[in-house]
Amino acid sequence: MLSLPLLDSSELSKWQKSSSSSNFSSTSHNSENSMIRALHTMAKYPARQHALNVKKHLQTKIKDLSNHAIFVSGYTNEHYLYSDTAKPFRQERYFYYLSGSNIPGSHIFFDINKEELVLFLPEIDYDDVMWSGMPLSPEDAHAKYDVDKVLYESDIDNYLTKYDTNLTTHISPVNKKYSNFLRQSDKNFFYALDEARLIKDEYEISMLRKAAAITDNSHTAVMSALPIETNETHIHAEFVYHSIRQGSKHQAYDPICCSGPNCGTLHYVKNDDTMEGKHSVLIDAGAEWENYCADVTRCFPISGEWTEEHLWVYETVRLMQSETLKMIKPGASWDEIHLKAHKVLIDKFLEKGLFKGDKDEIFESSVSTAFFPHGLGHLLGLDTHDVGGHPNYNDPDPKLRYLRLRRTLQKGMVLTDEPGIYFSPYLIELALKDPKQAKFIQKDVVDKFKYVGGVRIEDDIVVTENGSENLTGITSDPHEVAKIVQKGLAKDKSFFHNVV
Ligand SMILES: [Mn+2]
């Protein structure tokens, strides 16, 4: 059915073995990079299979697809207003899923009946060749991408006019001129696209695995370089520097690099505060590989020595993670797994005296959301918060309101498991003002933990046949983490490559 085979399983497992080590040495990066490049020449991004996946899901919603086609446009290069500087290019993800192409200004077309996939390239702009070089020819593009034909944009009209319905994601400046032939934002089409992207194939998992391996090394680099990290900016710089060195030009999202009480702000991206006088660091950062994302969080003590409070919070979060990781398998409810994390938190808070009262009443009151306000995890793929999770941000249960994945787990889903405990003065204040929650909080005990700010541990997980596989290789063992930090601290500043 495929024009080219997917990865040969023996080749894949060979590569998987080599990438699973989080050995922090430049030789291992280089050999991994050349291995993944070799994979690229062996197998193409499985765009045809992806189009067939979309067809399969569309068939369950639209009975007669005989005169239907799919037409999705990629993004184009855009300039900032009043400037000739281009915005950073990020390919449209539905387009990429169906084409595997990063060429700006392209379109992908799929005749559902004939199962023919056509890539349309933008016309050559000869004025631009001097600046940007010669674009890929249709012949080279045909060899590179898993499509049946490659044509130029001038052929699009001939295709679109033949069909009663050309389903598209949205009308954009790139495809506005064809808007008369396009049906945008069809609910069934988005349903089919999202269901297709929900389950990752071997090729996609190999990309996610590579993004995770780069991310492991970059986190290790951050933990190992405390002598040159005195401001949150240095943490950010260290992570991005090591990602780019490994071939990951783009981050999956803006890194969250915080120290001390800043760790209590969930999406803190200022990343510019001094680390002097602080105790803890939280870094949530992930590299991207061929548009596939990693999303990993690690926490460590700046001095290399855990304080009693920091370690207790850390161990509690780690228990929330290990208890929930155990439950991940096909057929399991992610709602239930998420609520299990709340239950672990409540048990430990009662044990330590941060909460008082009856554990079932505490659970019902949702007071635990003052300390663990976000969801346990989300789908991961071409987007960091990947499509198809069916969140309900109006859920009356505050414990479930921010859970981005509300589905039964299936083999091939990739998701994050990222419990956290935070001491956000704002959220604690809100809970203390609510008599239904305040009665369970022992404020004097909670106050002792505020300097920690927050702890989150986040790993990237594939749902397998019988359970799960953790793509994240970097340790989360608090003693091993402390050792990595201490080993770095023992080095002189001049050991590190830094010019300022
Ligand atoms: Mn995440």
Automatic annotation (TrEMBL):
Top-level lineage group: Eukaryota
An individual GO BP term: proteolysis
Gene3D superfamilies membership: Creatinase/methionine aminopeptidase superfamily (3.90.230.10), Creatinase/prolidase N-terminal domain (3.40.350.10)
InterPro entries, per the entry: Aminopep_P_N, Creatin/AminoP/Spt16_N, Creatinase/aminopeptidase-like, Pept_M24, X-Pro_dipept-like
Cofactors named for this entry: Mn(2+)
MF (Gene Ontology): manganese ion binding; metalloaminopeptidase activity
Name of this protein: Putative Xaa-Pro aminopeptidase PEPP
Annotated organism of origin: Cyberlindnera fabianii
